[in-house]
Amino acid sequence: MTVISAFAFGLAFGSFANVAIDRIAQGKALGGRSSCDACGRVLRWWELVPVASYIALRGRCGGCGHAIGLRTPAVELACGLAFAALYAATPPLAAVVVFAGLLLTLIACGALLGRRERAHG
Ligand SMILES: [Zn+2]
Description:
mainly alpha; about 0% strand; binds zinc ion
């Protein structure tokens, strides 16, 4: 593993984190293909590349033009940079995996809390 692959892993992890945040908050299952929130169109593989797809699509759904929102690439990029920085500081892969686990727990808690707030106004 290199800093570059740690960055790529972080980007992919950030992409998953976005999906997890949205689906847990909406009470949906974590499995299944990603689709547009507005038109429901199932996204193609090239529309799911972290950060690059957001830039290529200019931040909008390729089908209906609905704005994707800056949170998506921001979370992806933040995770990419965090993982690369962590790997650069503490090379063992185990440290990165532990950090990923901690982050996932945080995401799950945050999403569940947001869901509760939404349900109770
Ligand atoms: Zn759409």
